[in-house]
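Dear Dr. H.,

I hope your travels went smoothly. While you were away I took the liberty of generating a structure for the chain from your last submission, since the lab meeting agenda had it listed for discussion. I wanted you to have the full record in hand beforehand rather than looking at slides cold. The sequence, exactly as received, is reproduced here:
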Amino acid sequence: MGFLSEAAHTVPGMSTQPPAAASVGAGATALVEGAALVETPARVEDPALTDDGTTAEEEPRRSSLSPSRASDFMTCPLLYRFRVIDRLPQRPSSAATRGTVVHSVLERLFDLPAAERTVQQASTMLRPEWDRLLEDEPEVGELFTDDAARDEWLEGASGLLDAYFALEDPQRLEPAERELYVECDLDTGLRLRGYIDRLDVAPGGELRVVDYKTGRAPGEGFEAKAMFQMRFYALVLWRLRGQIPRVLQLLYLGSGEVLRYTPDEADLLATERKVEAIWDAISRATERGDWRPSPSKLCDWCDHQALCPAFGGTPPELPVLPVPIVVQAPAADEKPSPHTPGDEL
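The corresponding predicted structure, in token form, is as follows:
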């Protein structure tokens, strides 16, 4: 295949036959970086202007979905509502924040000449990346009571970098893209968008989509759920480039394992149908104001139990938004958490 560096361990049972030739539908858009992200509103009333002052005739509403928000809805429709519609704040967690810092290090590591991409150099980058995050998001400083606690936490992040270097040799890699924002429009008008951690292109032109996770690899039976995000990205790339990625690869630094999958056209068409079905369900929930909780083990990581009927709480009143205004979702909200709650399930 010619991607140069290959990971050391592979979780079994996640491979298929090589992909068939791709056929591309209409409506693909170009790769975009830094664009604003949007989601559908809670419940609506007529008529109104969009948030830039134009009318519905001048600026039709564009429905959009990211893998992180699709995953929220599949996990729990009420969680989707809390995050997208109510925009309830989420407390920073040490695991997710550590994942953010490690992601930043791995992104910037490839700014260095190949010979300087060592585990020692990566470890020295942790503190500057933490300081950068602290400046942008001062609330993460509340995670630690003192410098000793922070330093112990950074030491844990250093261990994740050790795990990364055991899986890949970055001196033998030259990624084509890092933190790549992509979006495309399906034939139905639904816009798909998201961020890809890393895109590798082999000398022969084959694509490998890589995502870093700082949690542990999923347990048996949960691999397909973990791979949904990667199939989503593969679908977008296929619609944009007319090429099905050769490999989808998740690097789980928490357990030192790799999950690989080779998609084909049937996989991506099935993913497209699934994404459209998810959006249809979101649209119905929006129209009816029906956002039901879906209790599971993942509730242990949820910040919103006090407002959840499954735990005796009462959600806030739904906001009334005009048509065709769309709720603006900050770009950071669209990036999947580097440590997804329940990774270890």
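Two observations you may find useful: The chain is about 35% helix and 15% strand. Strands lie at 37-39, 43-45, 64-65, 177-185, 191-201, 207-213, 247-252, 257-261, 320-322, 327-329.

With kind regards,
E. W.
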